[in-house]
Backbone:
């Protein structure tokens, strides 16, 4: 089938990616199209896959994500401008981040056989924690509920060519009074889930922080933490939460950095960092001790090398 050149009043520039339930395009509004306030010329157009147009559960999940993210305003969160229906299609207009997902950068460093710069890794996670601090404290919906992202992983963290770090994809997020998953349902990316998540227990913001700990460990170590031949094996490893020190793979990791990572990855959530702000403060101490910049300057070695 020929590639579409127009969707919902937007000219398609090119397809960026296809996911489990949606496909993502770079697009620009055609002249008659009424753009949302603040909407730039170039945007991301996210479309629910045609396969799921008539599936009420998928439509609800797509629309719920748009409703939630349209309310969020934070420099480290991808902005959603609007959601609408055009003919049979459900569409979401989002901010275009010119760059790559963190997963792409990790793969590039892994292929090169070198870990990401420790200062850059720490800065990226600090930006991520600022985004999570915001979503964990903001109140949305009639019940003024808390948000749990539930799928914090490197493919959902975007790095722009200018050094912006942005969290995206709230498709499986939970919000009291607005979005709620089925009890015990396994939703998210297994290798970045918390032990309580793989056990089907109720999750809270500390599950998101566990995922951040996994990401930081992997950037420090230049390898996957919870890997396996299949989902069951990975779930078993996540549940046990046996985490070797990152210095085993990268002796350059400072002892204090290893202690921060270890605390983030404790199986007992009551012993982990209890908030994104607490986790962030620990990383800021690490950066000060090491003399690492906590600005976009920390990403210069990565951006110049990419």
Residues:
């Amino acid at each position: 089938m020929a590639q579409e050149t127009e969707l919902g009043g937007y000219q398609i520039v090119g397809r960026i990616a296809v996911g489990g339930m949606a496909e993502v395009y770079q697009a620009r509004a055609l002249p008659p199209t009424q753009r949302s306030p603040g909407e730039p010329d170039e945007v991301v157009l996210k479309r629910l896959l045609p396969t799921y147009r008539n599936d009420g559960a998928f439509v609800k999940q797509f629309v719920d994500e748009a409703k939630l993210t349209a309310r969020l305003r934070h420099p480290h969160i991808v902005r959603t401008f609007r959601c609408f229906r055009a003919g049979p299609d459900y569409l979401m207009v989002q901010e275009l981040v010119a760059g790559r997902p963190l997963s792409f950068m990790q793969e590039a460093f892994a292929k090169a056989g070198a870990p990401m710069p420790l200062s850059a890794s720490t800065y990226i996670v600090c930006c991520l924690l600022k985004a999570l601090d915001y979503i964990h404290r903001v109140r949305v919906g009639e019940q003024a509920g808390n948000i749990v992202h539930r799928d914090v992983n490197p493919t959902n963290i975007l790095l722009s060519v200018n050094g912006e770090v942005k969290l995206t994809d709230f498709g499986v997020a939970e919000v009291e009074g607005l979005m709620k998953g089925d009890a015990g349902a396994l939703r998210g990316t297994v290798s970045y889930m918390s032990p309580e998540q793989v056990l089907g227990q109720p999750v809270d913001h500390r599950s998101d922080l566990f995922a951040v700990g996994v990401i930081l460990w992997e950037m420090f170590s230049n390898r996957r933490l919870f890997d396996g031949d299949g989902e069951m094996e990975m779930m078993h490893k996540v549940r046990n939460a046996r985490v070797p020190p990152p210095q085993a793979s990268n002796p350059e990791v400072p002892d204090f950095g290893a202690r921060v990572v270890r605390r983030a990855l404790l199986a007992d959530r009551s012993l982990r960092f209890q908030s994104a702000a607490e986790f962030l403060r620990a990383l800021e101490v690490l950066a000060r001790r090491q003399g690492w910049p906590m600005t976009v300057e920390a990403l210069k070695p990565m951006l110049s090398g990419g």
About this structure: The mean pLDDT is 90. The first strand starts at residue 6 and ends at 7.
